[in-house]
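Sample pair:
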Amino acid sequence: MLDLGAGTGKLTATLIALGAEVIAVEPDLAMLAELRRSLPTVRALGGSAEAVPIPDASVDAVLAGNAMHWFDMDVAGAEIARVLVPGGVLAGLWNVIDDRVGWVAGLAQVSPSAAIGPRDTLSKWRANTAGLHLPNTGVARFGSPKQAEFTHGQPRTADSLVATLATRAGMLVMSAQERESTLNRIRAYLGSRPETAEGEFTLPMLTGVLRVQRL
């Protein structure tokens, strides 16, 4: 299978641990170098969803972990369909927070979309990813989507959660003053909640999966 937009290889490593034969493709050279360093036996290639450097019909599945929303499906749809075998599967995966939990819903409310966006919560991720496999123009290459969630959690502290939110793309393009103000507001909220004010806690999460089959 192909891990497309593989980053530093977190999903790649998980797939390998499950016994899969994986090719990793990543456009960012620094991330690709880290992937090659940490997973030296993996076939790791420079490339993108719009220009996948592998032959036609060479993988059974293409997975994209927290990456599919960046793809230009007008171009990438045809490329992904090209490298998949007939009937092969494209799956997008997103880690989302479980906003059925009261303090998590509150966190989403005090955080701007730059920190916690519409794809980042259980209540909204389905609606905001259901059409990501479709091109804006041209022929659809994949069938109807299926979506599912798989529960897990991450051990966190208030500081580690704020540090992670600070690395979101939308946060990084804010002015320094706006970013600091936003992070202070999130930090203050976490400090006000008994679930998160002190020590380590579990951030309730799910992995949302969008699965489509090549036509």
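The chain has a mean pLDDT of 97.
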